[in-house]
Amino acid sequence: MDQNPTRVLLIEDRQEDYLLTRRILSRCENQAFDLEWAESWQAGIEAIRRCAHDVCLLDFRIGGGDGLELLKESKEIGCKAPVILLTGISDYRLDLAAMEIGAADFLVKDKLTPELLERAIRYAMVQAEDMEELRRRQDRIAASELRFRSVVQSAADAIILSDDSGQIVFWNKGAETIFGYTEDEVIGAPLETLMPEQYRASQRLEFERLRSMGRAQNVGSPVELMALRKDGSAFPIELSLASWTNGSGTMLTAVIRDVSERKRSEEWRRAKETAEATNLAKSTAIARVSHELRTPLHAVLGFASLLLKNPAGNLTPFEKDLLERIVQNSKDQLELIHSMLDLSKTEPSAHWLDAHSRAG
Amino acid sequence: MRKVAVVDDNSDNRLIIRTILEDQYEILEFSSGMEAIEGFRKNKPDVVILDISLPEMDGTEILRRIREDYQLHDLPVIALTAHAMVGDREKYLAAGFNDYVAKPILDMNVLFSTIQRWENRE
Question: What is the ipTM metric for this complex?
């Protein structure tokens, strides 16, 4: 025998029926009951609102209204306790109507026995508990579904589900943005729709494979390939595939990222790097050529200048004039090389040229 | 006689400097950085004239090794360059050279006065 008495709310406007019910409940051997009596519609509603009962027995003809209406109202209030309707006469249509609204049982008063009522209450409570558990599960599923939806719908990537025949069964906002098709336009369409012609044959093979082996190639690591927008333009994508099997067959999840922008910036970066490398090679070559051209002239200038110093004191004016011409020509040549090859420098006038023209 | 080391891979350049200086200085010629550093350890010069553009070990690298060497770190080192751009002087002094002479050497007095600035440094 259960330690805790079952808390019963009786909504009944006739005292003799209350007393009858109380007598029946008190005769139940296997379960104790705490009975609360609400004598009117209003008292019944207030008692229901308190949610303090395990089960509710409701007279079908309650003063001030119809028992079905009160039942409906109790469901709207969110009363979780099962409601058993009590009626004076057996009426099949009324029974069905009560069941429809959510009555746990439908009992005829003058056929009540302690065993019958106790069993009806017990079953009603277990069923209500089961219903409650089911409802909690549904809530969890709904919450999980909502989470899934909000994650999937807020993703910038296209997230597409297809069945094993390659038909699109799910299409998120990201997919709409990337491909240009709305969900309505694309659900039920073949995945091929999203691919340029040249990929379609291999995709058909892929789905054959998926159907026969239950798994697809390319599952796991992302691959880069081309896709087709609604407007017919092709664009590069990164595709990640996952396949999974549920009761109705193998499904394929495709996560697709539009990589046009990334491709463009990669190309731009490569072009920039090439240009920079070319520039560097050019300036290195210029520096080398400049050095190679100037070194022998430095020697010519140096030696001619040494001779002009006339250390032995035996040069004729004519010989000195020739040496000066060698020096002048070399300087002109140096200046020419300098201005040709050092154009990139911000200060085109060479330090040595300035120094020398001041000195000379 | 004070010793001036000339480090330059071009023999014409070395000959010009030798011709200018040899009446007043003992000239030690080197055509590469490795050869020069080895030579300095055996016979330490008073002043070094160091070409910047050398194959293999370039002038700034040779300077770094001189500055790290406990025997040679205080050597006065004069950079010799054909780059000859405005701002070069500051650049080479900042790199740790004591002084700077631009190629081609047309005015011998520039070379003399530069060496004289450093040869008597104690």
Answer: 0.72
